[in-house]
Design brief:
heterodimer, A: 276 residues, MetI-like fold, 67% helix, B: mainly alpha
């Protein structure tokens, strides 16, 4: 329900303003999409041709032919799904442990985990590379996935979500003789689907976006993720920017799809159910 | 099962159950729950020990050495830090990073709050507008960078949209006065919608009664915002400022792709310097020293915000 009912004309003015703003926000996405179907020489005209006079869907097939993007996307997909799974599993475990168990030093552990938000890969890049090198994981999938597998954001999100679940449920299940993992699976998880949806989307997106780490740890073409491939593609002579945009569109689709799939849960997870 | 019997017993006994001593291989119920909690957190802590705390300590150690991945590192004391302080490129990069972090954080917070307030007025279609804006946060960052590099081209969309307002053709990315503002603009475009959603959740959680009471007292919209909305949102503003600040402190790809750090060094940031120093020039010790500086900035920023907001809380009470 809306909070303060404004006068009708004011509401419509507000609508126009908001719609205009959202349009401005979406404009670059529209530009990317239309450019991916555009002829190469039309890219830098004085006015943007929003609807191509001639459509060039072959930009997509050409781009896929000019570089092994199928392989790059596959690599990115493997890495992102693994990172998403790792965050879901370990984020839930640690989040549950911190939300519903009291043990010595539990508050300190929480601070310790949250403090890693100040230690992103960009900060620990050199020694993380040396760690992965010591594991002999350079140029492997586990080398790309390893350092990304758990993020404090997921632990915190799951803790905040689980903490509001009444402890009585857990104790009742314990009295019934349920094991701790079964309690987590059957009592806790069904009640934090919104948080799981948010964690799934953000952990997928973050590893799907990841550029610096694969750049550091991968030096063979067959293991490159698509962002590395796409930048290289742009630097290689003779590949028109329209084909870059085609790959950019293809790269956008999985994240948008995941969001569309989980949209309802995400809205709940953000606490936006009250929004009209 | 015996565990269920002991569970009921210890629940009935309450805390007194803790004093009962059993054999060490079958710890008592309370103790077993404690251990379970630790076991759930342990994998994450181990992981962070291997990939966060360990590397950070290693970075601090490395920063006092000279290391090129080939020969063994040798101790050089504060030489890396001395060299950094004397290096004009590092100094420019440090200033750039601070300008970028502070500028982006302030603008993201203000823009996100304004957008959330606009959506919270409940105008028709607000939810769809929110979803549309949120898409900018889901678009792959590499696509964001490539698209905006074209949009900022002299013939690009930005100049086309600005030309009706009498703005001449600006070459945004090759001008050292406009390159950093351009990158900050992309940052705000990318992150403000996410924090807008965070703010919106906070706004929806403020009880309606507060506004109704203020309305009865004849408080106008501005006073309601100042005396109800802002104090109620204070913890969320803290969250947004800290998280967006940390996000911006680690920024790499935007300047790396959009401007390549140029023109000159106008948009070079510390994370780019870490990568180049460590992996292009193989000066691992020096790169580690830059990492330590970057960490110090993140730490100072976080602690500073904590102090600031702790004081703000006291003032409100």
């Amino acid at each position: 329900m809306s909070r303060r009912r404004a006068r009708p004309w004011l509401r419509w003015a507000g609508f126009a303003l908001l719609a205009g703003l959202s349009f401005l926000f979406v404009l670059p996405i529209l530009w990317m999409t239309t450019t991916s179907f555009q002829a190469g020489e039309k890219m830098f005209q004085l006015t943007t041709e929003w609807i191509p006079s001639v459509w060039h869907p072959e930009n997509y097939s050409n781009a896929l032919r000019h570089a092994p993007f199928a392989q790059y996307f596959l690599n990115s997909g493997i890495v992102s799904v693994a990172v998403m799974a790792g965050n879901l599993v370990f984020g839930t475990l640690a989040g549950y442990g911190l939300a519903k168990f009291r043990f010595r030093g539990d508050r300190f552990v929480l601070v310790l985990i949250l403090s890693t938000l100040m230690l992103p890969l960009e900060v620990t890049l050199v020694p993380t590379f040396l760690v992965v090198h010591a594991f002999d994981w350079l140029n492997t999938y586990q080398g790309i996935v390893g350092p990304l597998l758990i993020d404090a954001f997921g632990v915190f999100l799951m803790r905040q979500s689980i903490i509001s679940i009444p402890v009585d449920y857990i104790e009742a299940a314990r009295i019934d003789g349920a094991g701790e993992l079964r309690i987590l699976w059957q009592v806790i998880l069904p009640q934090c689907k919104p948080a799981l949806a948010i964690l799934a989307i953000f952990s997928f997106r973050d590893s799907w976006d990841q550029y610096l780490w694969p750049l550091t740890v991968v030096s063979v073409d067959s293991l490159r993720t698509y962002p590395l491939g796409l930048v290289q593609f742009g630097e290689d002579y003779g590949n028109p920017p329209t084909e870059q945009m085609a790959i950019a569109v293809l790269a956008t689709i999985p994240v948008f799809l995941l969001f569309a799939l989980l949209q309802r849960s995400v809205r709940q997870g953000f606490g936006l159910s009250g929004l009209k | 099962m015996s565990s269920s019997a002991s569970a009921g017993e210890s629940l009935a006994n309450g805390r007194g159950a803790r004093s009962r001593v059993g054999p060490w291989w079958r710890p008592h119920f309370q103790r077993r729950i404690e251990l379970t909690g630790m076991a759930f957190v342990a994998p994450t802590l181990l992981f962070f020990a291997a990939f966060k705390y360990g590397p950070m300590l290693w970075a601090i150690g490395l920063s006092f050495t000279s290391y090129d991945m080939v020969s063994t590192p040798h101790f050089v004391g504060l030489e890396n830090y001395d060299n950094l302080v004397a290096d004009p490129v590092f100094r420019v990069t440090l200033v750039n990073t601070l300008v970028y972090v502070i500028g982006s954080t302030v603008l993201i917070t203000v823009a996100a709050l304004l957008l959330a307030l606009a959506i919270n007025t409940g105008v028709p279609g607000a939810r769809h507008c929110m979803a549309a804006m949120f898409l900018t946060n889901l678009m792959p960052i590499i696509a964001v960078c490539l698209v905006w590099r074209f949009l900022f081209h002299p013939f690009g969309l930005v100049n086309q949209l600005l030309s009706p307002f009498g703005v001449g053709r600006i070459d945004w990315l090759t001008n050292s006065d406009t390159a950093m503002p351009a990158i900050i603009a992309v940052t705000v475009w990318r992150f403000a919608p996410y924090f807008m959603v965070v703010f919106l959740a906070g706004l929806l959680a403020i009880p309606d009664e507060y506004y109704e009471a203020a309305g009865l007292d004849g408080a106008g919209p501005l006073r309601r915002f100042w005396h109800i909305t802002l104090p109620q949102l204070s913890p969320i503003i803290f969250f947004v400022v800290v998280v967006s600040g940390l996000l911006c402190a680690r920024i790499f790809l935007m300047p790396f792709i959009i401007t390549g750090g140029g023109p000159g060094n106008a948009t070079r940031v510390l994370s780019m310097l870490v990568y180049e120093t460590g992996f292009s020039y193989l000066k691992m010790g020096r790169a580690a020293a830059i990492s330590v500086v970057l960490f110090a900035i993140a730490l100072a920023f976080t602690l500073g915000q904590m102090r600031l907001f702790a004081r703000g809380e006291e003032n409100v009470r």
